[in-house]
Amino acid sequence: MKLDGKVVLITGGASGIGLAAVKLFLENGAKVAVADINASSGNQLIESLPHEHLAFFKTDITKESDCHQTVQNVLSRFGAIDVLINNAGIEIVSPIHEMALEDWHRILQVNLTGVFLMSKHTLPHMLEKKSGSIINTGSVGGLVGWPDIPAYNATKGGVIQLTKSMAIDYAAHQIRVNCIAPGIIDTPLNEKSFLDNHTESLEIVKKEKAKVNPMLRLGKPEEIAGVMLFLASDLSSYMTGSVVTADGGYTAR
Ligand code: NAI
């Protein structure tokens, strides 16, 4: 699965699944550009993992000017973008009848518009060089109704449909577009959500959540990063428009 010399641009790479992917991609010889809204986490990443093939670009993926600028910065720094991983995302827990319109807009902007904007500004480069792999981070919530996060599920359903549609449009240009749909992964996103929405300790909530999966445990960020590496590499060269679940068997029932 070596990605020697390939340039990977990953959004949300300063935390959780994205951070695990950054480390795995570097280990596999890639040049990695991290685009994240959180400058302190991004700078911390560069300090803790100094590497000539790692760069951080502060980016708010909901802002078109940021997306355009980051793509240009990555091209200037590394000369190409071979793989785009649209991974940044947020979760908002709220039933629809209590959800503020601004929260609805916010989650759509980050989870869906962000994928559109980063793809829009990366695709001209991939079209020019007639190759590329785009990997979108969906969720099992885009495939089945996961309780308490209807807006999140709607955004991830949108990500899956966008993946399939882009896969068809760009297949003849040798640009592959795939989606990974993780189950519950042990990351800061979930820890925050568990703490905000439960009175029990984090440890107890994690144990309870683990029970919903046939494998009876939460996933690790590295277990999603591994699927991203496979989708980025030539081992998946005949895959496009695929939605790959990595969910401890949750959607197999
Ligand atoms: P995380 O919260 O650990 O990391 C998300 C990263 O995205 C953070 O570094 C954050 O600063 C960044 N980000 C947020 N808004 C941004 C914006 N506007 N512009 C640029 N960067 C922004 O989350 P985690 O768990 O690693 O999630 C990564 C992806 O995986 C998300 O798309 C999430 O929806 C998806 N996912 C996560 C699951 C889980 O159980 N943790 C399950 C299924 C999908």
What do we call the CATH topology? Answer: Rossmann fold
Which CATH first-tier class would you pick? Alpha Beta
Strand-and-helix sequence, N→C?
A: EHEHEHEHEHEHHHE
Number of strands: 7
Helix content: 40-55%
- Chemical compounds bound to the protein: 1,4-dihydronicotinamide adenine dinucleotide
CATH superfamily: NAD(P)-binding Rossmann-like Domain
Strand content: 15-25%
How many DSSP H or I helices?
A: 8
- The Cα radius of gyration reads 17 Å
Strand order of the largest sheet: 3-2-1-4-5-6-7
The assigned CATH architecture is: 3-Layer(aba) Sandwich
Word description of this protein:
It is built from 8 helices and 7 strands. With 253 residues, it is α/β, with parallel strands linked by helices. The protein has one domain (7-185, 220-247): Rossmann fold. Strands 3-2-1-4-5-6-7 form a 7-stranded parallel β-sheet, with helices on both faces. Strand 4 (83-86), helix 4 (101-129) and strand 5 (132-137) form a beta-alpha-beta unit. The longest helix has 29 residues, at 101-129. The protein is globular. The mean pLDDT is 97. It binds 1,4-dihydronicotinamide adenine dinucleotide. The site of 1,4-dihydronicotinamide adenine dinucleotide (NAI) has 30 residues, from helix 1, helix 4 and helix 6.
